[in-house]
Structure formats: C-alpha cells, structure tokens
Amino acid sequence: MDIKIHRIYDDDVLQGYRVLADRLWPRGISKEEADLDAHWKDLAPSSDLRKWFDHDPDKWGDFRKKYLGELETHEKEAKEHLEEVGQKTLILLYGAKDKKHSHAHILKEYLEKLK
Q1: Residue 39 neighbours by CB under 8 Å, 6+ apart
Q2: Whose CA is closest to 54, among 111, 5, 98, 105?
Q3: Residue 87: in which H helix or E strand, if any?
Q4: Please, are residues 91 and 16 in contact by the beta-carbon 8 Å criterion?
Q5: Does position 80 have pLDDT exceeding 90, yes or no?
Q6: How far is it, in rounded angstroms, from Cα 8 to Cα 19?
Q7: What is the mean pLDDT of the chain?
Q8: How far apart are CA 104 and CA 93, in angstroms?
C-alpha cells in the first residue's frame, strides 16, 4: 500500500482510498467535493493537542512526540482502518495551510510502520 498526503483545498484530485485525517470538517468543502471513502476522526490529534499546537512551527517537535503518543493508544483502530484500505493507494487529506507542519505527515509515518 502506498500512502500519500494531500491538502483537501488543492485543485488536483488524487485517486485512491480518500480519507479525511482531520477531526474537524474543512470549511467550505461539501461532502460531494470531498469525495471521501472515510473520515478517521479517531486517528486525528485530540482537540486539546490540536489547540495547544495551534499550528506553531516552534512546537512541532513536541507536537510530534505527543501526537505519536496519542496514536499508540489507537493502534487497534489504525490497523482496522488499514485493513479497510486493502491494497489501494491511501490518500490522507488534511485542511491546514502549512503543508510542512501538518499532522498528516506524522500519521503517515505511523501508519507506514504498522503496515
């Protein structure tokens, strides 16, 4: 399985098993536009962690450690989600403007270790 990260607001549409990896629904995107196969809220950063991070690049290292800790508590769910995807290309969609400091990178790293 190949895993790709893509910002949901970008014009190009990647084909594969499309998953929204954010806890919150992206503003201005309809369900039809999103064209999702799943919404993995349970693997998104907790609300408290998301609010603490507040997209501050200076907190990226600590955010990464804390988020990986959260993901470890959801290993069973993550494995179940990966089974649903099968051999399709997994497209992790996120809404953040900062492409470099999106939690989707951390989630991809975590999922790649599980597969």
Answers
A1: 19, 20
A2: 98
A3: none
A4: yes
A5: yes
A6: 10
A7: 96
A8: 8
